[in-house]
Design a protein that fits this description.
There is one protein chain. This protein has about 475 residues and is α/β, with parallel strands linked by helices. It has one domain: Amidase signature (AS) domain (Amidase signature (AS) enzymes, Alpha-Beta Complex). Helix content is about 35%, strand content about 15%. The two termini are about 30 Å apart.
Length: about 475
């Protein structure tokens, strides 16, 4: 989820990065283990919306019409269940907070009675379809709130890539939507649905949200159920939400109990009293000039709104890309062990190349990466102990053209950068450290291509995260 489309990191850069991991002191890091124990439970109680507005059937019909009108070009949907959505809308009782809201579900997440294709030939075709009998936990939560599943959105094969073919970016169909939740972000950006589910292992909700100009949230572990989701890397995967704006995102998160009903409200005095930390060196690596300038303006806006922006240290932050890739490669290789033995030819060339790379990694690299992960979590929590939030770009570049990423690199700031580096640079840390994170639109470059601003909070501070996002958006930033 957020790994690159071609070779994720060539053997040279990956192994050079691993050599650097072995030089990080780990005397007190302990052994690999769960990082999520003690995280707060989800908020409880669902707000009841005010009456009026279109009925559930009307909302669903409008969504189906929008999909029919534009998805021939965007191709954000793997499957549209028009009749199932209409039937559910007819059954929805009054009083549910998301009554009749049409939703897209990434085709990695189980919806009862619909095939979970995972973007893979392994799970398509006669005798190979996977049709679950029960909804994934996150889908069941949506249904209990009254949302209506319209269909399954596209995903990069097994979430192991960052391009999501054949989906196109609604802002420029010649460009990729990002991945691996590219279909979910594209469906929201195209106005097909107001909410979509994605999954995020190293940025797969945030990357396509930044590229497509949507808002994305990856809640604290445990806030959205993770059962019924095909894994990429079990120790990093999380389910996330994608919506058009931070305000919409906060409303949906409150309705689902991810935050308290008033937890995403804008701060009336702007950012007064808020301390925002920017990791040292954030803008030092290759970055598109328009992206760097937009992020600098965002930091200035926080100050204008009464906040304080300070530099914070995450000394081994550079290790997040290598450690994240080592964990993803090892855990994904284990998950696909039987498919490699009996149906390797069914993998796409890009995923097969990454699994080949994974097969060459020593077991010790995985153990080392998990131990480094604990170091990174400690450093991130230390940084957050002195500030309310961290802020940084979501991506160092805007969405690249599809014909510019075939070799597994991305043009960033006038140079070619491995896609893993570009996609994971600002995103992997929050996954490794098990922190809530979100991205919101930050204007566009000179060509009208969206730019994203990312926020990261301490465990359980999803309300603070969404509060900052809605505040920033409500002041027209």
């Amino acid at each position: 989820m957020g790994a690159p489309a071609g070779a994720p990191l060539s053997d040279g850069p990956l192994h050079a990065g691993l050599e650097r991991l072995y030089r990080i002191p780990l005397d007190d890091a302990g052994l690999p283990g769960a990082l999520f124990q003690g995280d707060p439970p989800a908020a409880t109680g669902l707000p009841v919306p005010a009456g009026g507005g279109p009925g559930p059937g009307d909302r669903v019909e409008e969504a189906l019409q929008r999909i029919a009108a534009t998805d021939g070009e965007i191709r954000a949907w793997a499957l549209v269940d028009a009749e199932g959505a209409r039937a559910q809308a007819r059954r929805e009782p009054d009083g549910r907070p998301l009554r009749g809201v049409p939703v897209g579900v990434k085709d990695l997440i189980d919806v009862a009675g619909l095939p979970t294709g995972g973007g893979s030939r392994h799970l398509s075709g006669p005798g190979r379809e996977r049709v679950p009998a029960a909804d994934a936990g996150c889908v069941a939560l949506l249904r209990r709130a009254g949302a209506v599943v319209v269909g399954k959105t596209t995903t990069h094969e097994y979430a192991f890539g960052g391009t999501t073919p054949p989906t196109r970016n609604p802002h420029d169909p010649a460009r990729i939507p990002g991945g691996s939740s590219g279909g979910s972000a594209a469906a929201v950006a195209a106005g097909h649905v107001p909410l979509a589910l994605g999954s995020d292992t190293g940025g797969s909700v945030r990357i396509p949200s930044a590229y497509c100009g949507t808002a994305g949230l990856v809640p604290s572990p445990g806030r959205l159920p993770g059962d019924g989701v095909l894994p990429l890397a079990w120790s990093l995967d999380r389910v996330g939400l994608i919506a058009a704006t931070p305000g919409d995102l906060a409303g949906f998160a409150a309705a689902l109990g991810v935050i308290a009903p008033d937890g995403g409200g804008a701060r009336p005095s702007g950012f007064a009293g808020l301390r925002v930390g920017v990791p040292a060196g954030t803008l030092d690596e290759p970055i598109d000039p328009d992206v760097g300038a937009a992020v600098e303006r965002a930091f200035a806006a926080v100050r204008d709104l009464g906040g304080e922006v300070v530099e914070v240290a995450i000394p081994h932050g550079w290790a997040a890309v290598t450690a994240g890739m080592a964990i993803i490669l090892a855990e994904c290789l284990d998950y696909h062990r039987e498919r490699r033995a009996s149906g390797d030819e069914l993998f796409g060339a890009d995923v097969r190349a990454m699994l080949d790379l994974a097969a060459g990694l020593p077991a010790g690299a995985y153990v080392r990466a998990q131990r480094v992960r604990r170091v990174l979590r400690g450093e991130a929590l230390a940084a957050l102990s002195g500030v309310d939030l961290l802020a940084m770009p979501t991506m160092p570049c805007v969405a690249p053209r599809a014909d510019a990423v075939g070799d597994g690199t991305v043009p960033v700031g006038g140079t070619e950068v491995p896609m893993a580096e570009a996609h994971l640079r600002y995103n992997a840390l929050a996954n490794l450290a098990a922190l809530p994170c979100g991205t919101q639109p930050l204007g566009a470059d000179g060509r009208g291509l969206p730019i994203g601003l990312q926020w990261v909070a301490a465990p359980g501070r999803d309300d603070a995260l969404l509060g900052a996002m809605t505040t920033f958006a409500s002041h027209g930033r």
